[in-house]
Design brief:
six-stranded mixed β-sheet, two-stranded antiparallel sheet
């Protein structure tokens, strides 16, 4: 069984979705500390031909709290309006905007579950059938840290292959994984270009941007544009 474990990110870029798409089970790493400067609650879309950041309002966000201990605020209408204003003329706006609205206006306020719902909702739209679960629901040794904890989760789920984003090369040792009966790979995303109105292409924006400008069929092709190292 092939496994990936990632912190929950809001409307993440294509590489995150390639990871979800290529594994059997994707674990939302929700019982680790929140990172204030990360992409857990923020991302970027296209605005007037430029990259524009947007942020999900959080209540009581702190690096001393676990991700699943933080709550989402009620001021998401600004992000929704910004999305509508900038993509209303995009070719797939009518199909995608209701999904974004459903996600941002959902009743769930737990940050991990809020983003988990968004991942499941978008996965359904993209016809990705990967099993998505939460690390907090897995029996494991929570005293372990870093790669030892990842290996423990792999063993508990009986995974024999673990795939991580390319940035994990500095964090994980292939030999240690092999000694525990687990094959380790890293996913490196290829640059995926597409038409964004008449603007010069801006890469690595939120999946929202990709969905607004591309059919599900084209996105499925994009999901395969990577190499495993």
């Amino acid at each position: 069984m092939t496994l990936a474990i990632m912190q929950p990110y809001l409307f993440p870029y294509i590489g995150y979705w390639q990871l979800i798409n290529t594994v059997d089970t994707f674990v939302i790493y929700d019982d680790v500390n929140f990172i204030k400067q990360g992409y857990i609650n923020k991302n970027a879309i296209l605005m007037n031909g430029e990259k524009k950041a947007f942020t999900l309002e959080l209540i009581g966000a702190s690096s001393n709290k676990l991700i699943n201990e933080i709550m989402v605020g009620d001021r998401n209408i600004k992000t929704l309006k910004m999305t509508k204003q900038n993509y209303i003329k995009a070719p797939f706006f009518s199909a995608v905007f209701p999904i974004i609205k459903d996600i941002l206006m959902q009743d769930e306020k737990n940050l991990a579950k809020f983003i988990g719902y968004s991942l499941e909702k978008i996965a359904t739209y993209l016809k990705i059938d990967t099993n998505i679960i939460y690390s907090s629901d897995i029996e494991k040794n929570n005293e372990l840290k870093a790669q030892e904890k990842i290996i423990d989760i792999c063993k508990n789920l009986k995974a024999d292959r673990y795939i991580n984003a390319i940035g994990g090369q500095e964090l994980y040792d292939r030999t240690i994984f092999q000694n525990n009966g687990i094959e380790l790979n890293f996913l490196e995303t290829e640059l995926v270009e597409y038409t964004q109105f008449k603007n010069d292409f801006i890469p690595y924006l939120s999946i929202v941007d990709i969905m607004m400008f591309n059919s599900v069929e084209n996105i499925k092709i994009m999901l395969e544009k990577y190499k495993l190292i």
